[in-house]
Amino acid sequence: MSRIAQRFADLKANGRKALIPFVTAGDPNPNVTVPLLHAMVEAGADLLELGVPFSDPMAEGPTIQKACERALKHNVSLRDVLAMVKEFRQKDTQTPVVLMGYMNPVEIMGYDAFAKSATEAGVDGLLTVDMPPEEAADLMVALSDASIDPIFLLAPTTVDERIARVCADASGFVYYVSLKGVTGAANLDVVAVAHKVEQIRKHTSLPIGVGFGIRDAETARRVSAVADAVVVGSAVVNRVADNAEQPEKINDAVCSLLREMRAAMDKA
Fold it and tell me: What predicted TM-score, i.e. pTM, was given to this entire model?
């Protein structure tokens, strides 16, 4: 059983939902990332989503675009991100790590070379925003051989036929984007999320994570009541950005938010 599957099984057995924070690797500088990953786990994170900095992150709003820019000022590459995961694994061998990013860096490295390096580093899953399942056959073979879960996105506009197609190829968990638009959008409609999650459940037994629009403990609590995982990105990255000039304050700023979310989710 993969680390991702094991983590979700353990959470389900204990009647809990997964909290999955997202940060961009290397933001605001490379020395921050690994200590922040450990701190987030201590604050209640169950899985970690680590963004690979990219110059044209088309699914992202201004918050994560700027995070990529801050990381790229330090020339943080995909190989640097894998090195960060490897360093993280020296102290934490249990918390699943999912890389989130775009196909260009993976294409440049090569699918087989990426999969080999990623599994050696301790990566558990890969979410590539701009790689649909219909085009991912070669990548999925490489990931499968390396026991890395391909994570795919579903949207509010995704129809039943496509939900079935995506779920057939996914493993680890399915990521439902709760809002139309880019990361950092507001106006989360939890009732609509609940309806869509139920529609997705008809096509898969995988856990369903919900992201986009989760900004505080209350929205995390409400989403955790209808989904298996809460993915929080821009709210975390905003706290990184607010303290970019004083990086020693980042861990406390981020972890105070995660502790509030974890407590609220556990009460849901």
Answer: 0.95
